[in-house]
Amino acid sequence: MTDNTSYYAGNYGRGIVITCILNEGAPTVTGRTYDELGENAKGIVYASELTENDSVAIANDSSVTFDDCNGIPVVEKPSNGEQLVVGKIVGTPRIVKTPPNSAAADTLSERISGGYYRIANVELMAGITSIQKATVMCDGSNATVPGDGTTLKLNITSEFDSDRFDDGNNTMQLDTVASGGTGLIPFHYVPAGTDGDTYSCLVGVTGLITAVTGA
C-alpha cells in the first residue's frame, strides 16, 4: 500500500523559497560530545536555535550587507512587537562552517565574516512576488535598513541610461530616500555613505514601485 502521508499537510502557501543565513545567536562550542552510540564530535548549541517550520524575521543589523553575506538574506527568531516576520523555514538547517571556539562567533559580524552559521530554505510570504538584485545609490543621509520598505525608490534616470548595460550593470536601479518608497523590501544593509556611492542589495518586490528622477 502506498504511503500518502504528507509532511506539509495544510501548507499551501506556494511562496518563493530562497536560501537564507540563520542568525541563531552566539553559539556555545564544546570540545567533545557523545551520541547514543558513544561516538564523539565537536558540539554546538545555539542561543536562539531555529528549526524546520519556525517562522522567521528579517535580520536588520548593519553587518548584514550584500557583499559580506554573498547576496544571501539573513533571518532570525522574531522578537516581541517587531513587524519583520517574512516567512518560515521549510527545510532542515545545514551548517556552513563550525567555529573553532565560542569566542570566535559571539557576534553576528563575526559569524558572517567567518561563515560560522547555518543556512536553510525559507518560504517567503509578506506579499513578495519577485526577488531582485539591485544597485542602490546613496544620498549621503539615509541608510537602507533591511525590512524598511519606505526608503527605496526606482531611479529612472539610471534605469533608462543606455550606457549602463555596456558597463555590465543590468540590475534594478534604486535611490535611497528619507521616506515615501513603496513596493520594495530590502534584505541587506546599505550605509548612507557619500552621495553617489553605489552598493548591491537584494530586494523583495511586494507591489507597485515609486519612481523618482534621481541624480
Based on the model shown, name its key terms:
2 domains, mainly beta, 2 helices, 215 residues, five-stranded mixed β-barrel
Strand order of the largest sheet: 12-13-9-11-10-14
Average the pLDDT over all residues and give the rounded result.
Answer: 90
What is the succession of H and E elements? EEEEEEEHEEEHEEEE
Give the helix level as a range of percent. Answer: under 10%
Give the domain tally: 2
Explain what this protein looks like in three dimensions.
This protein has 215 residues and is mainly β. It folds into two domains: 108 residues, no CATH class; 83 residues, no CATH class. 5% of the residues lie in helices and 34% in strands. It has two helices and 14 strands, in the order E-E-E-E-E-E-E-H-E-E-E-H-E-E-E-E. The strands form three sheets. Strands 12-13-9-11-10-14 form a six-stranded mixed beta sheet. A five-stranded mixed β-barrel has the order 1-5-4-6-8. A hairpin with a 5-residue loop joins strand 2 and strand 3.
